[in-house]
Amino acid sequence: MTSSSVSSLTLVGQMFQREYGWLCGRIGRALGCPHGAQDIASETFLRVLAMPDPAAIREPRALLTTIARRLVYEGWRRQDLERAYFDSLALAPAAVHPSPEERLLVIETLLTLDRLLDGLSPRAKAAFLYHQLDALTYVQIAERLEVSVSRVQQYMAEAFKRCYLALEAA
User: Fold this and answer.
1) Is the per-residue pLDDT at 2 higher than 80?
2) Is 40 helix (H, G, I), strand (E, B) or coil?
3) What family does this chain come from, according to its entry (predicted)?
4) CA–CA gap between residue 17 and residue 15 (Å, rounded)
5) Which residues are paired to 120 by β-bridges?
6) 3-class SS of residue 93
7) Which residues contact 134 (CB under 8 A, 6 or more apart)?
């Protein structure tokens, strides 16, 4: 371990001792679940520890609140996505239900796709998903979204650009 990583670890450890209880209380009030709040608070400090320069943090409570809030939102998004996936599975015949391992892979893939498309308008996301998952044509998507075919083309270009940039970065 380098001396800078030891000092970062010490700094984050001190921040943890000072702010963990406060952060758990703040998250706990928002979630209504002390155990979930502890999980979120712990993950928040792991994210702080992974930062390149924790010594540069000037407003620790503001940073901790921001990270924790994002983690809470990510959790809610995951729950919504899992619920939608399991609802769609309930409609499928039992013979085609995936194994638990396959379900986990599908959920992780859906979460990755959701993060990838984050920032697109709801209609652009819907257009991309209709095309990729439901194999709808641009004309069918335009009818469903009540927009022009050229607008669907624009939505698809935005989504494909995000996919390309993500692949290029990987």
Assistant:
1) no
2) helix
3) Belongs to the sigma-70 factor family. ECF subfamily.
4) 5
5) 118
6) coil
7) none
